[in-house]
Amino acid sequence: MRRIMSLLVMLIISVNVVSAEQDSGRFTEGVFWKIEKEGEFVGYIFGTLHMNDERIAKIHDKVTPYLDDAMSFAMESFPSDHYWNPYQGSQLIKSDMVLPKGETLDQLIGPETYQRVETVLSGLLGMKPELVKTLRPWAAMRSFAVRAKSNKVILDYALLDRAASQDKELYQVESIEEFIVTLQEMPLDAQVALLEFTVASYDDMYQIIDDMLDSYLKQDLQTMFQISTRFIPQQPENKQWRDIYLKHVVLNRNIVMEHYMRKAMRERNTFIAVGAIHLYGDKGVLALMEKDGYSVTQQDL
Fold first, then answer.
1. Is residue 76 part of a domain?
2. CA-to-CA distance for 256 and 177, rounded, in angstroms?
3. Strand, helix or coil at 125?
4. Which domain covers residue 159, as residue numbers?
5. How far is CA 87 from the centre of its chain?
6. Which pLDDT band, with edges at 50, 70 and 90, does 145 fall under?
7. Alpha-carbon gap, residue 103 to 71, rounded angstroms
8. Chain centroid to CA 4: how far?
9. Alpha helices in 70-143 (DSSP H)
10. Residues facing residue 35 across a β-bridge
């Protein structure tokens, strides 16, 4: 974990440098890109949507031939780290999600908001009430989810299963521990505010998800990026919370992911799948690849 923290400190410094640059308006659309370096083919990067809606299956069918031809497959965190390390996956991650002994979530967010959190996480999603009460605000926020509308496998995991069945080399470009560190470093007041916004917008979540899906099917990265923070009210005083959310949930992670993509890209003929929002703009992974000397070209689907 100390090594992860050291890496993230360097990467957070980098993201502040990127933030100071003028936005060029590039990388606002397109979910499938070819990667080359010095005229040589490196692979493809595909922006996914972490959902299991049936409409995504059409895009899945279009990219699988490219995956089948690849030598390796890289994605965000594997579905569960305990697939690789049972102790690390279950014990350390769980301890990071809970508050220090003696502290409770209701003390931080108040009884009214806490009651709504417990209603969703325990009543609708089946989480044990005693666990809900000990969650850190960021963990409660990330646990909020609208129940799946389909029993189909999430696209990212379907791609992983296909790659594994073909005995490809598998890479993750972000471990679950690194993801947790970015959230742990979020200031507590921001965690509380973002959890309150999440609770307040829960009734609108289906609509937000539908709008995100529509934008994805149009390959509109810019609108997806905007929708990702729609749960935060638009008043000027909330800009600070939006900036903190994007920094910790998107921008810092972009740099971590692009850093770990390099190994698969050096070995050539790779297929990389990450959330489409991480492709967006001058702070996304496509722009970061270009800074590292790669060229990216949008592909039709």
1. yes
2. 12
3. coil
4. 2-11+29-84+155-188+205-298
5. 24
6. low
7. 48
8. 17
9. 86-87, 93-97, 105-109, 111-118, 129-132, 137-143
10. 43, 296
How confident is the model over 78-89, as pLDDT tens digits?
875 434 444 444
Is 137 contained in some domain?
no
pLDDT at 183: 87
Residue 232 burial by CB count (10 A; 0-12/13-18/19+): exposed, middle or buried?
Answer: buried
- Work out the average pLDDT over 130-142: 91
Residue position matching structure tokens 């934008």:
215
Residues 277, 228: contact at Cβ < 8 Å? yes
User: How many domains does the chain fold into?
Assistant: 1
Dist CA 255 CA 251 (whole Å): 7
Q: What is the pLDDT of residues 32-60, one digit of tens each?
A: 999 999 999 999 999 999 887 778 888 88
Q: In angstroms, what CA-CA distances link 8 with 3, 39, 246, 253, 266?
A: 9, 32, 15, 9, 22
DSSP 19-68: HTSPP---S-B-SEEEEEETTEEEEEEEEE-S---GGGHHHHHHHHHHHH
Look at residue 163 and tell me if it is in a domain: yes
Residue 228 pLDDT class (50, 70, 90 cuts): very high
Phi-psi region of 209 (alpha: psi -120 to 50; beta: other; left: phi over 0): alpha
CA angle 92, 97, 99 (to 5 degrees): 115
Q: How many helices (H) and strands (E) does the chain have?
A: 16, 6
- Asked if residue 72 belongs to a domain, the reply is yes
pTM: 0.85
Compute the mean pLDDT over every residue in the chain, rounded to the nearest whole number: 85
* Residues 6 or more apart in contact with residue 48 via CB below 8 angstroms: 31, 155, 156, 159, 273, 274, 275, 276
